[in-house]
Amino acid sequence: MHIGVCTISAHLPESTNLKSKRQVVRSLTARLRNQFNVAVAEVDHNDLWQRLTIGVCCVSNDTAHAHEMMSKIVSFVEEFSGDLVLLDYETELISGI
């Protein structure tokens, strides 16, 4: 079993309060769940209205597939409707569990 984990940090330049941030977060997490069938959660910067850190996780029987999924997810977030600017991401593959 192979697990792909990705932590994505982004800036929300158009967010003016926590309510507008939540709208972007809900939209992004729902689209990631629906399109890639992965687990997604906001993992840091919960009270900062212009910062977003989400964690994304997938389980696969092939390391290459897990790596490909994480790459596609990062590309998807980069192109996400102009509401956010990708600052940083970190991908980790855990194998042999």
How are the SSEs ordered, and which strands pair?
Elements (H helix, E strand, L loop, with lengths): L1 E10 L6 H19 L2 E6 L6 E10 L2 H16 L6 E11 L2
Antiparallel strand pairs: 1-3, 1-4, 2-3
What is the CA–CA distance across the termini? 6 Å
Q: Give the biggest sheet.
A: 4 strands, antiparallel
Helix coverage percent of residues?
A: 25-40%
- What is the annotated CATH architecture? 2-Layer Sandwich
Structural notes for this entry:
With 97 residues, the protein is α+β, with helices and mostly antiparallel strands. It contains 2 helices and 4 strands; from the N terminus they run βαββαβ. The protein has helices at residues 18-36, 63-78; strands spanning 2-11, 39-44, 51-60, 85-95. The mean pLDDT is 90. The chain has a 4-stranded antiparallel sheet, with helices on one face. The chain has a single domain (2-95), classed as Alpha-Beta Plaits, CATH 3.30.70.1120.
Keywords:
single chain, 97 residues, alpha+beta, Alpha-Beta Plaits, 2 helices, elongated
Write a brief structural summary:
It is built from two helices and four strands, in the order βαββαβ.
